[in-house]
Design goal:
The protein has 324 residues and is α/β, with parallel strands linked by helices. The chain starts with 7 loop residues before the first strand and ends with a helix. It has helices at 20-36, 94-104, 116-122, 138-144, 170-183, 185-195, 210-216, 220-231, 239-245, 250-261, 265-283, 288-294, 300-311, 315-322, and strands at 8-14, 43-49, 55-58, 61-64, 67-68, 78-81, 109-113, 130-131, 149-150, 156-159, 162-165.
Length: 324
Amino acid sequence: MVMRPARKAIAIVVPPGAQSLDVSGPLDAFLEANRQSTNGAKYDVRLISTGVQRVVRAGGLSIVADTSIADDTKPIDTLLVAGTPDYAQAYSSDQLGAWLRRRTSKTRRYGSVCTGAFFLGAAGLLDGLHATTHWQHAAELAERFPAANVIPDQIYIQDGALYTSAGVTAGIDLALKLIEDDFGRDLALMVARRLVVFLKRPGGQSQFSAHLAAQVAEEGRIQAVQHWILDHLSLDLTLASLAKRAAMSVRNFTRVFQSETGITPADFVEMARVDAARRLLEDSEAPLQRVASRCGFSSPDTMRRAFLRRIGIGPSDYRERFRG
């Protein structure tokens, strides 16, 4: 007799004012897994409101939840809490906190998308564990819940049964991680391709890219240097040469650059080179030596160390994972 994979119950908690994509992103990933599965692997996904009312406003949408915490009694395999700009409600939701503690004690795993982490924190479910959230709110999460070990700049983090992710689209990355854990990498890749998203970013990857950082700077000289860096990665991009291009002293250039972007010039250069190397590894069969040279790394080993710092895996493993 052939055993078919068990159906797994996914519950997504939708607080008032939820970020709509925090809900719909993971939801669509799980439903797409059902459509793409050929061996019986399935998810039963339901939305749960945090109050008696099942209609929840989420951005400009009205979401009709399947049930509420007041009457939901079905088993839950995986419980996720969606984020909301109004995450301060977590501090006054005693009923929700009690429900989360009770239900997560009987689930295989639980987690959050974006500021949903604040609801878990208020319920005491982050204590002693590593967690992340949207980069804009990471400092507040760490301040509010000092017993948690908040990692501010990762796409998602798993710590035992706890899974937390960064903001908005990172919820899709987290869902792909869960799909891969449940039913294998092939199904996760099929879902990612169907949704036309990046093929399952590693959890340790930074929430930022060099191109995003380049859009942050408003100071004209800094912005011009950033774009010049992106177009000349193979050159020797020393701090002195970059400061000279900006017509600034090294000290002033470093200060203004960091003030504008939140990172050092050296960090920006390394991020830009890793971004470029990632694209080459995904789209070409070029040897690592050539990739390193074209992206400005002095050697494949230097590139490997940068990859480990920035995304948690080496170039060879990255290519194997993302070229499928």
